[in-house]
Amino acid sequence: MRRSHFDLFRPNCPVCKRLFDRNSPLKLVHIFESERDQVIEGSLHCTDINCQSEFPILDGIPILVPNLRQFIADSSSGILSRQDLSPSTISLIGDCCGNDSWMGTTRQHLSSYAFDHYQDFEGKDPNAPVSSSIVGLLEKGLKDLSPLLRGPILDVGCSVGRTSFELAERFHTPVLGIDLNFSMLRCAHQILRERRIDYDLRRVGTVYDRISLPVQFENLDLVDFWICDAMALPFGEGISPFVNCLNVLDCVSSPVNLLISIARVMQFGGSILLSSPYDWSPSATPVEAWIGGHSQRSVNQGRSEAHLEQVLSTIGNLLNCKLTVQHQTNSNWRVRLHERCSVDYNCHLLSITKQASQGIEVHRQRNVLI
After folding, report:
1. Domain assignments of the chain as residue spans, ordered by start
2. In the predicted structure, residue 342 carries a pLDDT above the cut 80
3. What is the mean pLDDT of residues 299-327?
């Protein structure tokens, strides 16, 4: 955790926010290991004497979630997994565990996302595109984005970090990447510390090849990665003028709460870049919480695009603001499963602005980044 990002984003206690709807600042209490601006291991404490919840910093990644005990229990395998074993030993363990194990699932996810995010640094697959699919999606969305106000950027659902690095390189402003997958953020954080990424690329079955790539971006010192629940962002209102949220909407238990959380931390005049393939699955999102994708006899005939605009209008009324879709288009996103299989998504890509409702005067800085 960069101390500069901690001072800039001023996180609040997620427990106090969820249970009491109050903003209780967190304080950096323990530093067990550090490197320059980075706290590698330590802990943050809630400053409210009636709460005093503690949140660990592990491998440079603070874990700021309201249900910390459950998160640690569910993520303990990833948090405690060894990073010093040889590729041959990892391969043997992977054969024993199989693809249905925690290890198999984690290796598959890291293989797919790390390959997509960083394949352009050294292409190993002759059948794969030469550039990152997620970067193409980001670039297409940024072309239609309204000029950005100056201020720190939140990259929600950053995965293994490529979009965070691209945003810092483009806008020369602090970027905070947020995700709930500790193994993926550990991969992203390796780039911050070592300027390289190591991951296993799935060839077929349980056969993986170790990939080790040098990775370099401009403005790496402006990027940090935190574990946060996107549906309960631990920040004050209006902390950021721009929130990037690519392909997260259909991966959370409550898409509406995700949108509320994002809209709350945005500045008036700020923007959201949002995309989704609307690949709804009850394993990730209860059917009742889907935005479209069911009830084709309704007014929207089950169309997620139309339902989303209605949801944005409702959220705007709830937060005394207007959430307006400025531009929308479709863009491809490819996810590699193994060397003979990729999934191609057609993502709905939107830029959304947050404006004050009529009768509410908002003073803000007029400087823009683009």
Report:
1. 1-80, 81-356
2. yes
3. 93
